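Before relying on records like the one below, remember that each one covers exactly one chain. Contacts with other chains, cofactors or solvent are not represented anywhere in the record.
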Amino acid sequence: MFAARLSKRLPHPRARVPARNISVTACRKSDALFVHRDTTYNNPKIPFEFNEENTKRAKEIISHYPPQYKKAAVIPLLDLGQRQNKGWTSISVMNYVARLLEMPPMRVYEVATFYTMFNRSPIGEHFVQVCTTTPCMLRGSYDILDTICSHLGGIKPGDTTKDGKFTVIEVECQGACSNAPMMAVGDDFYEDLTPETTKKVIEAFAKGEKPKAGPQSGRHTSENSAGLTALTSKPYGPGEFCTPEFS
């Protein structure tokens, strides 16, 4: 009897809604930055040690720290090793730095995988980093990136040209926002870029030349493009315009 009353109170069953399929993309591994896998060109059996010049430089760097804190030199020594190793930090470089600083290798791996300044795979002779963060993006950085990739034979960001001369990547802010759009090639910044000036810079490197770094628009550093508008008069010296008691 209770079941009969309950059945009268239950709402009519709703029409069945067809199940919605969920689209998923193919799984891609993204552990290249954090996991080492031995290859023919990157494995612990490949010897590495600083050359004579860098050995002296390493000792000088380590001397800046108290003996018990010499592990603080891990970043500059990894950078030194990367420069000697043609622009990238191999597992052998990391292990050598660990031995030099008497650190557990894992502590060095943690540093090398955290900072994007350390390249974990071989790069080209010229390492081109194009900034596409908001200020540069608003000034046309994607046009700059497309210009470089197409000019280098249609490569994509992250690729290296077949001749091994250029590696191009897309990066976040490099701190030259007032000179956007910009890119870094090696240690130098090239700013105020247009597709035309970008091509000239890339072509110069391709010819073995070293184009002048900095703004490519003709302005000096990051001065106002409309000319000097502040500090146009001689600045006053110390003590001027002070009340007598502070003179």
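The first strand starts at residue 126 and ends at 131.
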